Input
Amino acid sequence: MDIQLKRGMLDACVLAAIKNEDSYGYKIIKDLKPYVVLSESTLYTILKRLEAARMLTVRTAEHDGRLRKYYHITEAGLRRIEEFKEEFKEVISIYQFVTKEDVHHE
Amino acid sequence: MDIQLKRGMLDACVLAAIKNEDSYGYKIIKDLKPYVVLSESTLYTILKRLEAARMLTVRTAEHDGRLRKYYHITEAGLRRIEEFKEEFKEVISIYQFVTKEDVHHE
DNA sequence: ATGGAATACATCATATCACGAGGTATTGTG
DNA sequence: CACAATACCTCGTGATATGATGTATTCCAT
Output
């Protein structure tokens, strides 16, 4: 998938991935894979960004002797998802413009 | 509208704007305004890019003593639009993932 | 007739961001 | 014992949308 087209959807994807249940980096990537492939470097960049924007909080926990950083969505994060849904209406309208069939002029 | 969300749609928008009829910069911006607002600097960047990718050709013509650069879509440009339509299916599937309601676990 | 809006083009510097390359460390498996 | 998988991280790069800025002409209201 075109990188540019992904942009603007990735933040919402990551937030959606932790919406129902706290999750951690490696799991988020696997959960998103069927819908959108993103590399680790991309994910960690996004997680940092979302944390800075206070759309999620982080908690470190041990699991089988390995550290995991669990991400939890905040109110702002949930609002971001709603915002995305609103904006997507515009995306649809743009799509309709692009796919609109020729009006034949004579 | 979020800048990031626009990305990846703009090229297709501009191509769609000249698909039915050759057009020029100023007119493209006005035609797209109801769907997506883009500045002149953005448009000219895109037009340059699309020209370099041979998705459109340029012809300069005089109109009321003023020069206009008319852009004409090529086969590659039309193909790009079709490609966009295909990719949009993935966009929809991502949207559905994001808006998917909670599956309540117990 | 004069000034400002509209038309029409263009360049440049900047900020955002996805990603590959590379790194560390542990656990599970053939 | 080596290699995949798990799990985290940083840095440099390239793509790109945009504001600021510039040039020049035409149209229109005062």
